[in-house]
Amino acid sequence: MKKTISVSNQGATLDTGRRNFLKLGGIGLAMAGLTLIGCDDDNDFGMTGNGPVFDLGTGDVGVLNYAYALEQLEADFYTKVVNNFYSGISSVERDLFTDLYHHEVIHRDFFKAAITGATTNILPTLEFQYPNVNFNNRNSVLATAKALEDTGVAAYNGAGKYITNPAYLVIAGKIVSVEARHASAIRNIINPGSTDFSGDDVIDANGLDLAKEPKDIVMAAGGFIKTPFTWKERGIS
């Protein structure tokens, strides 16, 4: 069964008065009043292991749940950063992390609303862990932010080809462009004035952002994710 849903960002509270480094770039406005054609709500979600383990599903629903999982992770990480800024943080870095926090919360809540309107099979709220991250240490926080943002860009690029609904593909393209800005901003904070924003570790020989398969992304980010899930359609179990 198909559903038509309307997604709005009404209720999001943002402090936009001081934004001069990163802009929302219209992403919030683009989401306001956006109409999407819902996915089939009869996808195959399985139970595996010793208890119920959520499977992301098939088709577009699977991709949306996958993106939702990654946005949950980024939002959770930046929530921890802004709730306890590391010692000696500069005003520029404080503003940057606050912007990133707002963006990722918007992305997370957007996917939750979109999937909830399209299907009853929505990824639950995940739990995360950061065993090797010292949130009071600048280098540790920046290194983790860099890894998460680079991984997020590669994840969207790699999953785009699995999206069949043009409306979802457009939104994914808008969100990944914001994620790429995040990655560049973090790299510039780490090494100001450098060309690291387009380093060989994230740009291929054709001058394009790297794209990674979901299985590789989940393997890379798995150390942060406490709540197990599967995506059988993409070989993640």
Automatic annotation (TrEMBL):
It comes from the Bacteria. InterPro entries: Ferritin-like_SF. Keywords: Membrane, Transmembrane, Transmembrane helix. Pfam families: Ferritin_2 (PF13668). The chain crosses the membrane at residues 21-38. This is Ferritin-like domain-containing protein. It comes from Chryseobacterium antibioticum. The lineage of its organism: Bacteria, Pseudomonadati, Bacteroidota, Flavobacteriia, Flavobacteriales.
